Amino acid sequence: MSGALLVRGAAVLWTGHREAAGGDVLCDEGVVQAIGTGLEAPAGATVLDATGCAVIPGLVNAHHHLLQSAFRTRPATRHLPMRAWLPAMASAYAAAGVDAELCAAAAAVGLAEALLCGVTTVVDHHLTWPTGADHLAMADAVMAAARRLGARLVLVRGTAGEDPDVAGAAVEALVAALGGPRTPDGLVALAVGPAGVHSDEPETFAVLREAALRHGLPRRTQANEQIDLEVAARRHGRRPLELLEAWGWLEPGVTVAHLCAITAEEVRSVGASGAAATHAPGCDLPMGWGLMPAGALLDAGVAVGLGTSGGGSNDAGHLLADARLALQAAPLAGRPLTAREVLTMATAGAADGLERPELGALEPGCAADLVVYDLGGVADAGVADPLAGLVWAAPGRRPRDVAVAGTPVVRDGVLLGADEREIARDLWRLLAARTAHDG
Question: What is the value of pTM for the model shown?
Answer without folding.
Answer: 0.97
